[in-house]
Every structure is written in structure tokens, then in C-alpha cells.
């Protein structure tokens, strides 16, 4: 009968007359935006393809277990009817080698490809199923072919008629079934799809589908904005319908407390002309008065905003203020040695005896390590040192690593050997008295300067050269020396002193006695 109807449609089309209505499917189901329709009636593969194409679809491709389950669902809803049904799998005309050729055994989908993650051949070891090896072959599915289970695939000549066929259609958007409040037994819904399927049990409905609720006198249609994948149920008449169905069509909330359904909008939003949609509330200005640091508008929810904080801070419990993050506690081992939390960050420090070099703590080297100080070494800064001497001693100017006896008074205690008290030492320019004191030698009393003026210093002296001296008017240890020797004499004067208190600093505390050997030992 279906074949006759198709021939009639083709004949009328060739005469330029309008074709009759499409045959109505005996069952249909949709999964998101893909719909599938079951048609009864004998038809060749070509005629079945024509019907699907006129519905802007094609014969069904069964590429997955989900598609196979849809076929089982359609057949079970049809009362267990299980003759052979064409699907969109075919092999072009010609005689080729026989064999598996992969899961599709050399067959192709009507979409021109052979991609699949599923196959269900009735005869696992062959593709002929009794069909001639040459000529075009097409595939039909049947529950009876293998008994209980998913419908199995069988190849047969394409010009033969199958008992029906399965179409696959794609839509740009879909709606879910009408949401009905629990306990509303008076609500019964009947759906009609654009491809002719009718019923009350659909997982999804493509755009253009209608929903009839006779008990409420309600007729709704699934529609979607351009490029949207999710549609909404609505109607041309403005205002809310019964709140028990699809929330009355209201975008925000439906209220039927007065007996008449009406839509309400959130604060700062107003109801639009359709009586169901709400205008977006005025978007608050993102500024510092709203958020402590950053304010970001949410494009997905007009009128809303979120506060954000810079790195090193986190959003407070009020969702507006920012609190410092204790980086040191949050990330153990953040620093090599010491971690100090700062406002919005942290600082790495080193233990005593270490210093930060290129972000790493490096142990400080003791600048006194390897020094040859006779008495004691004292660090100066990071990489320098100086030698210090015990009390009563001072570094030798020309050899500062060694110490010499020193006295900046007219008399000082002698440096005596504790094991041999009679062996004592005095600084140069001093002499040991009868006791254990070193007394400055008064070179002037001993006539060191002759007829010239003499000035005694601690440990030394100086002459003020007068008339008749080559060094007249100058200071020297010897006024009779030649002028060329003056530099050497001045050096001696600068290094030593005797007779008057010096303004130089006194050396630091002593830890040991310098080695023996200074002059004036008794």
C-alpha cells in the first residue's frame, strides 16, 4: 500500500499537481535533537529513502547501542511488530570479494560514510544471508532474525520490499516534555511532531512540535530563538496559563492565588508585553563601592555581578571584601628556610649565618678563615678582616698581622714571663726600672739632638733643627743628616712617639701574650 502511495506521489509531482500528505509514522521517538520514525507498509529501499528525504531526513543509521535501543523502544511501543524494516545501510552494485570488510562488511551508510561503533549482523560469519552475491544489497533489521535481543541486520536485494522502514531526522533545537506539577492527575498531554509522530511519551520534542492539554483547553508549541539549541513551550496569546503546566510559561514565577494565573518578576525587573517574560534589571555599576578590589559583570545573568580579588587575597565571607591569604601556611615549603607572610604576598628570609643570593640561602664564609693574625682576627663586613692585638700591644705598621708592645703613657707595666718573673720586656723607647715598670726614655736629657731643640715623645723623640743644620727649620731625629735622608726620618717620626700622651686608640682586650723578642729585655 505504501508503495502505491509513493508511486501516486511521484505521478502527481510530474504533472505539477500538489502531492498528497506524507504517510504518518506509526511511532516516533527523539533523543535531544535527533528524531526517529517507524513507518509500516511494504516499500523498496529506494521508495523508503524517498519518504525520509521528503521529511528532510534519511533512512536511519544505527551507529551505536543508543540507536539500537531506540529501535527496540519503537518496536515495543508498536505492540511487538517485528517484520523486516529498512535502515540506511547499503552496498553499491557490483561483484566484489566476499568477506567481513570491517564491522560493516563493505556496506556504507546512506550518508556516504562507514563510521560506526556498533554492528549487529544476523549471521556473524557472512554477509550474504542468502542474498545473491552480485548487485546492490541493502540492509533491514528484524527482531525475529535472532530471537530476543537487539534487532539484527540482514542483507537483501534493494528492489525487494520490506515490511516498513525507519527514518532519522535532525532538528536545530528541541524542548523537553511539559513540566507538570506532581499530583495533577487532570493533566493529560498529547504531542504532535513536525514529522507526523503522535503520542504522550516522548523524551524530547523538536521545534515545531505541539502539545495539547484538553482538560485545560491548552495548546502550546515548541519554539526557539535563532541559533539556540534549547527551545521553550509557548503560545501566541499573551499572559500566563495554568501554573500547574510548565510554570504557566513564566520566565520567573507563576502565581495563581487569586484563581487567575499571572507571572511575576524579580525586584527591579518588569513584566514584558507577552505577560510571561521579564525585562533584565538594571545592571549595577561595577565600582569600588560594590567590591573591595574588582567587580565583574556576569553576561549569563544580566543585572548580576561577582567580586574578585587580586593574587594573594581571597574573597571574604560577605563575598565583597578581600582577605589576605597566608601563603606560608597554605603552601608548606614555599621558601628554602624562613617564610614571612606579608599583606598580599610573602617574603623568603635566611637563617643567621646565611644570606640570600639569587633567591637561594647561601652559607656565609667567615672572612677570618685562613687568616694569619698573630693574636686575634676580627671580621669587617662580609669579606674583609683586621688583626687586633692584646692590651698593651698594637699591630706592627709594616706587618699588621703581628703585634708589638705598646705604651701610650710615660710608664707602663712590663710584659714579664709568668714562669720567669725576672725576664721582662718593654716597648721600644722604654726602659725597665728597678721594679716591673717600663719607663719612657728621655732622649732629650741624653743629648740626642745636640745643640738643637729637642722634644721628647712616648717611645721616641724629635729634634727641631736650628741654624747650621742642613735641615734648618725642620723636624728630624738627627739634624746632621743630609736632606736626602729626610723622608726616612719623617717615616720614623710618624711611626713612633715618646714623652707625650698619644691621641691614638688603645688596642682591644687580649687573649694571649705575644711571642718573646721585643727589645729592652732584661
TrEMBL record:
Its domain of life reads: Eukaryota
Question: Which Gene3D superfamilies does the annotation name?
Answer: Laminin, Mannose-Binding Protein A, subunit A
For this protein, the record's InterPro entries field holds:
C-type_lectin-like (IPR001304), C-type_lectin-like/link_sf (IPR016186), C-type_lectin_domain (IPR051505), cEGF (IPR026823), CTDL_fold (IPR016187), EGF (IPR000742), EGF-like_Ca-bd_dom (IPR001881), EGF-type_Asp/Asn_hydroxyl_site (IPR000152)
Please give one Pfam family short name: EGF_Tme5
Alphabetical list of CDD domains matching this protein:
EGF_CA, TIL
User: Where this protein primarily resides, as one coarse class?
Assistant: membrane
Q: State where the protein is found.
A: Membrane
Q: Which residues form the signal peptide?
A: 1-16
Keywords annotated in UniProt: Blood coagulation, Disulfide bond, EGF-like domain, Glycoprotein, Hemostasis, Lectin, Membrane, Phosphoprotein, Proteoglycan, Receptor, Repeat, Signal, Transmembrane, Transmembrane helix
Q: Where is this region: Disordered?
A: 488-522
> Residue limits of the C-type lectin domain?
31-161
Q: How would you describe this protein's topology in the membrane?
A: Single-pass type I membrane protein
Composition bias (Low complexity) maps to 499-510
Task: Output the PROSITE patterns linked to this UniProt entry.
Answer: ASX_HYDROXYL, C_TYPE_LECTIN_2, EGF_CA
Instruction: Name a GO molecular-function annotation.
Output: hyaluronic acid binding
Q: Name one GO cellular component term.
A: serine-type endopeptidase complex
* An annotated GO BP: negative regulation of blood coagulation
Subunit composition and interactions:
Interacts with ITGAL, ITGAM and ITGB2. Interacts with thrombin/F2; this interaction switches the specificity of thrombin from a procoagulant to an anticoagulant and antifibrinolytic protease. Interacts with ANGP1 and ANGP2; these interactions significantly inhibit the generation of activated PC and TAFIa/CPB2 by the thrombin/thrombomodulin complex. Interacts with PF4; this interaction enhances generation of activated protein C. Interacts with HMGB1; this interaction inhibits HMGB1 inflammatory activity.
Functionally, this protein is described as follows: Endothelial cell receptor that plays a critical role in regulating several physiological processes including hemostasis, coagulation, fibrinolysis, inflammation, and angiogenesis. Acts as a cofactor for thrombin activation of protein C/PROC on the surface of vascular endothelial cells leading to initiation of the activated protein C anticoagulant pathway. Also accelerates the activation of the plasma carboxypeptidase B2/CPB2, which catalyzes removal of C-terminal basic amino acids from its substrates including kinins or anaphylatoxins leading to fibrinolysis inhibition.
What is the protein name given in its UniProt record? Thrombomodulin
Species of origin: Chinchilla lanigera (Long-tailed chinchilla)
